[in-house]
Design brief:
By secondary structure, the protein is α/β, with parallel strands linked by helices. The chain has a single domain, classed as Vaccinia Virus protein VP39 (Rossmann fold, 3-Layer(aba) Sandwich), CATH 3.40.50.150. Helix content is 36%, strand content 21%. The chain has a 7-stranded mixed β-sheet, with helices on both faces. β6 and β7 form a beta hairpin. α1 runs parallel beside α2 and α5 packs parallel to α6. The longest helix has 12 residues.
């Protein structure tokens, strides 16, 4: 099961109404949740910056990605959802200062240890009791190390990890 379907199921089973995705990139999860969960408002956070210091598994970097095109595509598609789609073009730390009272967060922005750790610190208290902290790329040692420093997450399909708050 793909991550967007796993989160969709969690949203529907738990009647979640407001979530945030950190690192929306091309909008795969963000737009899917808006399409399939009509009572959900989503906050999507991404700086869409080229970050050569971010090296992914296998050595790929963000340097060759057309971030301008990705942002335009997400914004264009998000228009159909009106006020239910909130896009914050900024660093996740800055966005955390503007957001609160969430039913869930989905952490999928920077994958280096320090970025994941910072996102957990900045965002974990934004989720109400009874909500969920969800992340992606459990198979990355940097992501797993940061998450396990704070929680005992449950791994799920498509390298998702999650825990109830």
């Amino acid at each position: 099961m793909a991550r967007e379907h796993f989160i969709e199921r969690m949203v529907k089973q738990n009647n979640l109404k407001k979530g945030a995705e950190l690192g929306i990139w091309r909008g795969r999860v963000f737009l899917h949740l808006l399409r399939t969960c009509p009572d959900l408002t989503m906050i999507g956070v991404d700086s869409w910056k080229v970050r050569p210091e971010q090296t992914m598994e296998g050595g790929e970097t963000y340097e060759t990605w057309d971030m301008v095109a990705y942002e335009k595509g997400v914004r264009r598609q998000a228009r159909e959802f009106g006020d239910r789609a909130i896009i914050l073009k900024m660093d996740t730390t800055e966005a955390a200062k503007e957001v609160g009272d969430l039913d869930f967060i989905f952490i999928d922005a920077g994958h280096d240890y320090e970025s994941v750790k910072r996102d957990i610190i900045d965002w974990k208290d934004k989720v109400r009791p009874g909500g969920f902290i969800i992340g992606h790329d459990w198979d990355w040692p940097t992501v797993r190390r940061a998450a396990e420093e704070f929680f005992t997450p449950t791994p799920a399909e498509d390298n998702v990890w999650w825990l109830p708050v």
